[in-house]
Model the fold of this input.
Amino acid sequence: MWRTLKEIRRYPSAIVGLFIIGALIILAIYTVIAIPYSRAIDLWRAGPGTWDENPRNAWPVWLDFFTPQKLPRTIIVDLEHAEVREEEVSEDRKKVELVLPVNFGYDGFPSEITLFLNTEGIAPGTRVRYSAVWENPLGQRVEIAKRRSMRGSEIYYISQDPQLIATLGAPGEYALFSDVNLRVAAAQRTVLKGTYRLYLQAELPKEARFTGRLIVYGRIHGLAGTDHLRRDLTVALMWGAPVALAFGLLAALGSVLSTFVLAGVGSWFGGWVDSLFQRLTEINMIIPMLPILIMIGQFYSRSLWLMLGVVILLSIFSAGMKTYRAMFLQAKEASYIEAARAYGAGSGRLIFRYLLPKMVPVILPTLIMVIPSYVFLEAALSVIGLGDPLLPTWGKIISDARTADALYKGYYYWVIEPAIMLMLTGFGFAMVGYALDRVFNPRLRTL
Amino acid sequence: MRDFLRVARYSLVKAILLGFAVVVAVFITILIVNMGGRLDDIRKQEILNQVALQVTANPAYQELPPSEVRRIIEEKAQLEYRRLGLDKPFLVRTAAYLKNAITLNLGRSENLLSDTMSREVRRIIIERLPSTLILFGTSSILLFFTAVFLALALSRHYGSWFDRLVVSLAPTSTAPGWFYGIFLILIFAAVLRILPFGGMVDAPPPKETGAYILSLLKHMILPVLSMFVGGLASSVYSWRTFFLIYSSEDYVELAKAKGLSGRTIERRYILRPTLPPIITSFTLMVIGMWLGAIILESVFNWPGMGSLYIAAVNSNDTPTVVGINVIYGYLLAGSVFFLDFVYALVDPRVRIGAGEKKGV
Done:
């Protein structure tokens, strides 16, 4: 068998397929080690603070290579690095001014501007009032916040401030990054390159200070981009690999092996066992598997592993039963089986030691070829919203993208990336499977 | 005449088996939907809440002491349970559900309404059935004839570059139709903006018949194409193999030696023996397509049974869920029966009754 298996080298498509499968397995192992299960779930749940520094719906950074402009990336200015001017006003109070420089050299507008501000060394519950002034490279100044009040910490969404939009005539991320005196809509503005400055002014108790960061969100982020919840898609793209491989492999093994063994037992004993299996197969063909899975997903649990069990259970008496049976009926008549029977081997020994091993080459291609169909089944369940509620998977990315109308809004990367991963997995296994099929089924090989 | 009897007997046995399969499928559906009686408990609670609301809102009962009101609520709820048959034991209840379902007595939906504002499950489903049938009928017929034609053409030019191309494209069929649908939407609807993202007709639907059909056709292109792309390569590949196997038989060589024309040989000696396995594989494909319809319809927002099913499942509308499963069961059984019947017609072994058919 190993010698036959080596013949697969003659098929270039099989080599490509094996390469893809190998890469996926390495990716899966790396992912499970680098982002442990619980961490992946936490990241994907996207609790407060998890993804604060990521822009929303940002394209992947490699888009930059295909566009003539330099697309804006996220700029984070930490208040630690700000230039601080202090001035004593009284015994225990001081006037503080922080200058936050933003070096902006991109050809597009950023997507959002947000200030995360905390105060340290202030009695809890005390209000602090601060003002903020924005200065663009032309030297124009805009007062974006005037004696704005805050307690311990606040997040000021500058670009969404309705008052600011009203005074500037366009959302902050456009108006603040162009000629401020123009009162035109966002589309008619051009971005200014250079150093912008945010001046934060406040009166604080002597021992108090500001911490936090100013984030100017870009339009591209990470290797895979981000979704509507600022989640980095790489997490789900990576975690999709172990989930898809595990689901596909286990489902394929479970269903093909159980069908195979039962077909062997049925055709060996013949009689009522055989006809029972045959009838069950014919009935099972009509049982609507997907609707049943959907019902179970909705009414019981969406756990991936429950789905796996049901899938295997429903595929035991699948169409493969007929094919295997036909082959077993032929193999049963082989003379070595006759010989084994003559020396008194029992049915169990005959089936499991003689009949089944002989047929393994026949099911190996099938085993490989059905893996993608289960991978796509899992994706299909996710796409209609019945995916595992916790795990990030490729299907769930597509599902999120679909509910967020990603294609309509032009966030193509959001759909293309998981789709390509699915396609690679599918084609990788299929290419190896088809090649194995030709190697092991001589009837096809001569053709 | 004897041939006819054999075909009839074969079909009858098939029909009985398929009927039994439908019953089993529906039974499983009912068991799952009812969650071993849990759903009935939920329904009971809902009825109790409703009755309680009615009683407390009724001015006639407002003067009564609370214990009396509670008794009235309990009484009315029991009456309602009896009316809906919820007081019977689980097995009897299930059997009653099963009988109703099989006889297409599908009852009334809980949440969903048909476009004509009817609550009758049968009406809701019948409203959606044509749109599903038109989509899947078109694509299966298109797929079948294109694949047979292409497979035959490839087997004729075995080894040509086109043949090798199709063989190397065979793995593309591992991805299901809905998957290609997403790509097609991306290309034709999102980027090129020449075809609609989904739906069945423009909104509002055109008044004239001609314009309506045009709009329907425009919306059908992408879903039909995605099913077509999803199924074509592997069918052509495997059917080509069937053709090649049968065209290397000795009797084909003999026919060639006799000097029969290529067309006659193909029709009489290659196509005929190949049709039974092709029909078997097509049957399996049709079943897959029926079930894939659920996903495909939801990807394309096609207002058919698949999207209805998802809506019903999402709103926990038990009668509709069971109803659609029953219809699916009948549709699957009907398709399988029809193809089995065709099989019986084209496979001489069934007509002559010689031996059992063997899997290919």
